Amino acid sequence: MQTDFYPFFVDNSPFLLDIVSGKIIYNYEGIDLISYFNERMLPEEKKVKPKVKSFSLSVAQKCNLGCTYCYAEQGNFGSKPDNMKLQAALQSVDQLFSDAVNGEHYTLAFMGGEPLFNREVLYKATKYAFNKAKEKEISLGFTITTNATLIRLEDLHFFHRYQFTVTVSIDGVGEVHDQLRPYISGKSSFNKVKEKVLSLVNYPNRNYKVFARATVTTKNTEVLKTLQELQKLGFHSIQFSPMLNSPNGKEQLSEEEIDNLLIEFKKCGDYFEESFQNKKLIPFQNVLSILSQIHNYKKQSYPCGAGGSYMSVSASGELYACHRFVNDENGYMGDIQNGIDASKQEDWLISKHSDNQVDCQSCWARNLCAGSCHHEVMYRGRPACNYIRGWIDYCLKLYVRLYQQDATALEYLLGNNMQS
C-alpha cells in the first residue's frame, strides 16, 4: 500500500492529496510543499545509465503527404529523399540486441516519412528481429507510425501476424484534416485515410492495436470535437500533441493559443470523467498517461526515453537521440556500425536531466513533467510551462474525484492502461 501524499494547488493555495484514500488534506500551508513532494517521490537511480531497449528506424525518409508543419520537412529531414537499405535495417536490429539479456523487453518502431514506402525492408527487418528475439529469449514489440494512405490488405495480415501497434497520424475529420495533411499535390487525403483506418479497426479478430496521433495546430484547436470524432472511428487510443515547434514556423501555436489549449484539454477531461461515471472508457491518452503517473507515484527526471532508453536510426544508419533529431547534429549519438558514442550519450543525459534544467528546479510539477520535449525546448524554449502545470494540476484533482467515485475501477483502469 502507498502511504504518502501529493502536493498540489487549488486557487493558488497548496494542499496535499492522500493517494490511498483519495482525500484532500488541508491546513498544510506552513510546510514547504515542494521539498515535501520532492523528498517523498520514489527514488530513481540517476547514476545508472539507462539501457537502450528501443529503436525507431527511419526506413523511408520520403512521404506522399505535404503536411504543412512536418518536423521531418515532408519526410526527408532537410535532405534528399532516401530509403533505408536492408543491410542497415538488419544491422540496426543487431545493434539493438547487442547486449540483450534473457527476459528483457525491447521495442522496434518503424517511422518516416512514410515507412510503407519501403515495405520490403520493413517486412524483412520485422521477421529478422522476431526470429532473433526468439533465439535470445527476449520479448519484442513492434510499432509503426503511418499516414495510412498506402496500407494494403497484406499489411493488415502482417500487422496481425506480428502484433503491431499501428499509430495513424490524423489531425481531425474531413476538411480539418485535409487543410493540414493534404497530398503533396494539394489533393484531399482524408477520405483515403478514413477508408484505411476502417479497414484497420474492422480486421476480423485483429491481434494489433490501432492508435491515433493528432497534432494540434492553429487550424484545429477544437480538441474535444476532434476527440469525439476520432473516437467514432474506433481507435484504441487517441493522443494529442501541441505543435510548439515546426521547421518553418507554420502552424505552431502562439502562447495565447497554448493557454487556450488547456481549456480544451479540460473539456476533454470533463468528458472523460462523465464517461467514467457511466462505466465507459474514453481512450483519451493525454489524461490516462498523467493519471497513471500519479497512481504509480514514480519520479521522472526525463520527459521521455530520448537519448537514453530510446534512439532513432536514420536511413543512412546514423543514431540520433530520437526521431525528431534525425539529421540534426545536436542529437547525434553514433552509428550502427560503431555503436552508441558513450561520451555523447553521457553528456546528453547529464544536460537533459530535470535537476540541471534551470527553469525546472523551482517548479512544483517537475517530477511529473520532467522538463518537456527536448527538441521543442532546444528550438522554441518553454512557452508551454503554464499549460503543462495547469494540465497536471487538473489531473491531480481529477484523480481525487475518480478515486472517490470508484477506486476499484480506477485502479484496474490505470493498472491496465493501454500504453503503460
From TrEMBL:
GO terms for molecular function: iron-sulfur cluster binding; metal ion binding; oxidoreductase activity. Residues 49-285 form the Radical SAM core domain. The keyword Iron-sulfur applies. Keywords: Iron, Iron-sulfur, Metal-binding, S-adenosyl-L-methionine. Its cofactor is [4Fe-4S] cluster. The keyword NAD does not apply. Pfam families: Radical_SAM. This is SPASM domain-containing protein. It comes from Chryseobacterium muglaense.
